[in-house]
Amino acid sequence: MAGLEPGVHIDRFVLRAPLGQGGMAMTYLADDPESHGAVVLKIPDPNQLGDAATFERFRRELAIGRKLRHPAISRLIAAREDGQYPYLALEYIEGDQLARVLDSGPPAVDVVADYARQLADLLAYCHSQGVIHRDLKPSNIIVGQDGRLHVIDFGIASVQGMPRVTWRGFSSLAGTAEYMAPEKIRGERGTPRVDIYAFGITLYEMLTGQVPYRAEHPLSTMYLHLESTPEPVLTLRPETPPYLAAIAARCMRRRPAERYADGHELLADLLEPEQVDLSVLDRPDPPMGSSSVRNVEDNPIKFVIWAAVGGLLLGFGLLALLYRHR
Asked: Which residues contact 223 (CB under 8 A, 6 or more apart)?
């Protein structure tokens, strides 16, 4: 997607500078003459808007923006669904990505506990509204100048009860491998427990300074979620309160039924640490295996395998055709 130049007017907004590019949209810092402040303008890639699934994702993010009202979510200021540049205009939050904050090392344990409570409160609200973020991770969390957290980018969020948007292929739209719950990897649609899993990975990273699963290739990382056992939080950071380590461990259980059901259950344990079940720290979490996948459309691993096979068959077919015409 080619970027737009600073100074371009889109309705009343004036682009100031690009902020980043995602799988289907570009975000810009823009001036809003009406409020005399800054906004974030999210503009879908015009090359992809012709795809029904991409446009439906844009419309779904717009619907979610109109639905949610929470201090930790950027407020939707304006939107446009037609014209040369459809867009979402969102409240601009002064601050830095949590991912960049973590580049300097894990925060103090009491700060991590505060961040965890803030994120759980946000998840409890979203889940009460039937919204599942599906891509919770430090790069989608802004640490405001006042220390308050703000979750951004609901571009692949889902709303319970709404039809599934057809998967378009293995891309960033599917989520982020390091934070992806096993059931998503296996091709299942997912419930609020996919956010709980991503919360657990994020909490682990805030406490230890590293993610529990990472490999050179996203597919290898996904495999680790299904098969590998990460180093315990208390081994990497012994001063961690056991209740926080136990909450992270429960959130990261491979089987969804063993995690918190939603943000409400998670928040309850964070607010009442004495009630946290510490036995999860010593409970094995057996591998799941990557064989029980649902179908090619929904599963990235199986998709790549079949794509490779299809590519080989196509190559052999072309060679045979060329040989026949010699």
From this structure: 215, 290, 301
Q: CA dihedral defined by 232, 236, 238, 243, rounded to 10 degrees?
A: -40
d(CA 169, CA 183): 17
Instruction: Look up residue 72 and give its two tokens.
Output: 């930790």
Angle between helices 192-208 and 263-271 (to 10 degrees): 40
Say which residues have a Cβ less than 8 Å from residue 178's Cβ, sequence separation at least 6. 137, 201, 211, 213, 214, 221
135 noted as active-site residue:
yes
Stated pTM of the model: 0.85
- C-alpha–C-alpha distance, residues 53 and 44, integer Å: 12
Q: How far apart are CA 73 and CA 133, in angstroms?
A: 11
Helix (H) or strand (E) holding 107: none
CA end-to-end distance (rounded Å), the chain: 41
**Which residues on adjacent β-strands are paired with residue 25?**
44
pLDDT in tens, 39-57: 999 998 877 666 777 778 8
Can you spell out the DSSP letters for 137-167? -GGGEEEETTS-EEE---TT-EETTSPPPPP
**For residues 182 and 254, is the Cβ–Cβ distance under 8 A?**
yes
- What value does the CA radius of gyration of the chain take, rounded to a whole number of Å? 21
Which two structure tokens, joined as six digits, stand for 253? Answer: 């259980």
Q: How many CB atoms lie within 10 A of CB 92?
A: 20
Residues above pLDDT 90, as percent of the chain: 70
* The length of the chain, given as a count of residues: 326
Are 129 and 122 spatial neighbours (Cβ–Cβ below 8 Å)? no
What dihedral do alpha carbons 203, 208, 213, 218 form, nearest 10°? 80
Catalytic residue, from 31, 121, 135, 195: name it.
135
